[in-house]
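Cross-check.
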Amino acid sequence: MTDTPETPPAAEPLPSSTRVEGELPPLMKDSSFWGMSATQFLGAFNDNVFKQLLLLLATPTAIEIAAAEAAGETVPDRQADTMIVFAIAFLVFSGFAGWLADRTSKRTLIIAAKVAEIVVMTLGMIGFLLYGQIGFSGMLVVLFLMGTQSAFFGPPKYGILPEMIRDRDLPQANGVFLMFTFVAIIFGTVLAGAIGANTDTAWRGSAVCIGIAVIGTLTSLLVRKVPPANGKTPLRFSDFLVPPESIALVRRDRELLLALLVTSSFWLLGSIVQQSVNALGKTQLGLDDFKTSTLAAMLGVGIPVGCLIGGKLSAGRINPRVVVGGAIGIVVTLALLSLRGGPNDHLLGFYGSIPVLVLAGVSTGIFIVPIQVAVQALPPANEKGRMIALMNQCNWIGIILGALLFKGALALCDSLDQPRNTAFAVGALVMLPIALFYRPKERSLGD
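Predicted model, tokenized:
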């Protein structure tokens, strides 16, 4: 529940005009592929370091809240603002970025995006140094720019894979990409906690991010040159919004529409949980930034394990039992995290929360794999790309709604004098109807 909702395209043969020429090396010996994988790892690492630094900065400590209450004031939790700003950048630019990725060489866009990342990370360091003058709102501007950079990086980084490697290597290549992404999430989140959300020290973390962006730019130069996929495709107004063809497709296919709504609800839930973990650790349990980020990273530990299990259990099929099992696991683990009692009014505490968060991540991976497969497999071959683009747009809307729901949940908790971990119960309630009623049609992927 911590990764950005970018879905790699389903594996399809490409016209020869979009492929690189010459004999392609085996995937594991392909320096171009490993250069792209390293570039993806470093980019995801930077995203999660910077975003988690801002989320920690947005989360008030128990001491800050107590001091404010004594003075008759309030200290808002601004995590929702952070999530919304980051998501809006994707919503605004992802459609245009997708068009540009078809119109221009994807390698060119990847390198340009990495250069832009250096600029954004430099602005981030300057922002932390000048935090006393620009405040948190100024850092949100930098975060919006980072989201914009990520929006333009997403389409070419996934879209280039079918153009530069063999068709039979696509499943393995996407698996390596996902593995690198989750490892980057774990290490990036933990490093942000180690740096700490103190504006006197956070600029050093941004300095590290600048160095990582420079290295990522160098690794992007290893990516094989590819021609534009469709250099003459016209820019339409609908490229900035939802393409009408995608709307017509989901209207015709109820099963696809339900899968789309469920995956959007999943990312809504992920938005709630990510913020809830930070609020639990820093505000309720009184943990430092490192321990709080360690809790957040535990989800990232469990998700890839769950993805492997979900893939094995699905075994070439869309399996409703896998979906139900994952959904029930999510509901149960979130309910456990919401229990009151013991020190700090949280039954599990820090050490008890660690295995439960790992299990929540495992359940998440098990749940989402069949849903992602359904969205990739159900549309006709010539509409898969638009369908995946629509799903990503819906997922970002889900993240925004999740941020707003978390903000409302915190306001309700404060008015009813309930602890922060009550927000996990809200997440469990979001998933409960899906666990009880959603049953995708069982089918072989060859049907």
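The radius of gyration is 21 Å. The longest strand covers residues 317-318. Passed to J.P. for a second look.
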